[in-house]
Amino acid sequence: MAETEPVTELDSGFSSPGAVAIEWARGLNVLQRAAIYWVSTVRPDARPHVTPLLGVWRDGAMYFCTGAGERKAKNLEKNSHCILTTGANTLDDGIDVVVEGEALQVTDTAELASVADVYESKYGAHFTAPEGTWFGLGDSMRRGETLVYRVAPVTVLGFGKGAEFTQTRWRFVGP
Fold first, then answer.
1. Residue-averaged pLDDT of the chain
2. Could you tell me the CATH number of the domain that includes residue 39?
3. Which of 11, 25, 48, 160 has a CA that sits 20 to 30 A from residue 95's CA?
4. How far is Cα 88 from Cα 85, in angstroms, rounded to an integer?
């Protein structure tokens, strides 16, 4: 799937005077390079649930995985809307990114294999070495034993920090 170029908007009400919108390429770079993401889902009783996880960006979407018995999987079964966040835990530098979308379970064998390949490439020995924390998880994804979700962004927010604070909205519109 081809990458979609979003519509970029600066929210001047929440940005420093004279700030300019963050280019999508910079926001995308943060999404591609981050090691940890936080997924927010909604429990059946409407209480929020947030948890850290590993993720990858592939073909215009974020991917993450979990076990079928995990709270986030149970939540997504009832309400597929979620938010993924990542960024820099500082005020002086960096960009925080928030991805809003719907988490759809991936079942296509070729897509599962490709996503597992991206995970193994990104996280290296953590996935591929016998002593790695998540050794074997890629193969579990390929076999469909681990739930894999695809989140195509509807809206992505970028919060620039440092000398200039910015709030940028990237909207993904249909073809």
1. 94
2. 2.30.110.10
3. 48
4. 10
What average pLDDT score do residues 33-47 get? 97
Strand 48-53 relative to strand 7-10, pairing:
unpaired
Query: Does the residue 71 lie in any domain?
Result: yes
Look at residue 130 in the predicted model and tell me its pLDDT: 93
Q: Which of 7, 2, 1 is nearest to 24 (CA)?
A: 7
- The answer on pLDDT for 143 being more than 60 is yes
Residue carrying the six token digits 């996503």: 115
E strand map for the chain: 7-10, 37-42, 48-53, 56-58, 61-66, 81-86, 95-105, 147-160, 166-171
CB neighbourhood size of 39 (10 A): 24
CB–CB of 72/39 below 8 Å? yes
Q: pLDDT tens, 145-168?
A: 999 999 999 999 999 999 889 999
How many domains is the chain partitioned into structurally?
1
Tokens of 165: 């604070």
CA dist 123 and 167 (Å) reads 30
